[in-house]
Amino acid sequence: MTKIFSISENDWAGSGYFLSEAINSHTEYRSRSMRAKQSHLEFPYDMLDLTERQLNELWSWADVIHIHDAPGFETEELPHKPTIITYHSARFRNAADTYIQYAREMRYIATVATPDLTRFGLPLLPDCRPDLSDQVTDKHDTFTVCHAPTKREVKGTGRVIKACKRLNVNLELIENEPWEKCIERKARCHLLVDQFELGFGCNAIEAWSMGMPVISDAEPQAEQAILHCFGKLPYAKPEPSLADAIARIRDDVGWRWGWKTIGNDHYKKWHSPKVAAKISIGFYRQAVERHLILKSTEKLSRNMNLPPGELILMRYLGGNIGEQQWFPSDGTKVRYTFDAKIPIRYVHEKDVPWFVRLKGRNDKPLFEVVK
Fold this sequence. Notes:
The strands form four sheets. Strands 3-2-1-4-5-6 form a six-stranded parallel sheet, with helices on both faces. It has a four-stranded parallel sheet with strand order 8-7-9-10. Strands 14-11-16-15 form a four-stranded antiparallel sheet, with no helix packed on it. Helices cover 38% and strands 18% of the residues. It is built from twelve helices and 16 strands. The chain is elongated and about 65 Å long. By secondary structure, it is α/β, with parallel strands linked by helices.
């Protein structure tokens, strides 16, 4: 049984917690989640603010480390383990190159949680939420719009308030509430208006899981990234104006049901716990396999007493290793391609006449090093 230690300093959306729950419910893996500090949303993490002893024990327990945005403590002195890092926040969006370089230097597999961030070249590990359809039991008697901003200026809250006042529509404005209370209030509404810059976030995912239509929008680059990931937009756009879009969903039953179906189908395909767990397991396996490669090549370099700048050609002998990646090893860039039909080339400066076998699962040879 592979053991995952999920850690975060910020993770305002609780992504690490919900993914850990998904892994524990839908796979044979075991995951524990920790957050350095609790937020007002009060997600029920396994642990908060670990002591140094607890941290060392869990680090030793885990086979794979999963960091969400930032760990909240120094990891350099801890033993290196197969590691995934998933970026969520505006901090990454504003300095993507710096964070990507950090992941490379730390030998992490870097992913992003939201589709707009894939434009920086990292793969998507989608946020997930549990199926919340059972929470929908008692809708408001009159049509009610829900809006749940973490930061009003980011989510366009003023625009939502203005549109609802223009239409004389009830607005359920949810702020600074624990997550369970947010869900209770959200479930009574008929429509969620999410945001206008980045496409959608976890509020929309929760609404879709409830079978609720969503109005949202994205800036051009973010919208292109969403289309590239999913092929279509899972939300109605605020066109020709936000008020017009709200009014049509309120008044046109067929239109409203159409967007409920589109959103719920999108949730099931991309953000349900079972799907997210399956995607994450693929990344965890890749991290373990990369770690094996790193350890094997570093041991090989030591055994051969190679200074930086040597050439080794390695031929793949079969075995399930992973996908093509780039990573630094001892300060030297290395390219490897895992395909039984393609040679693996470690690019250095000169030939080395040497031969060795590295063994993988079931003691089967994975590579042979040739001149």
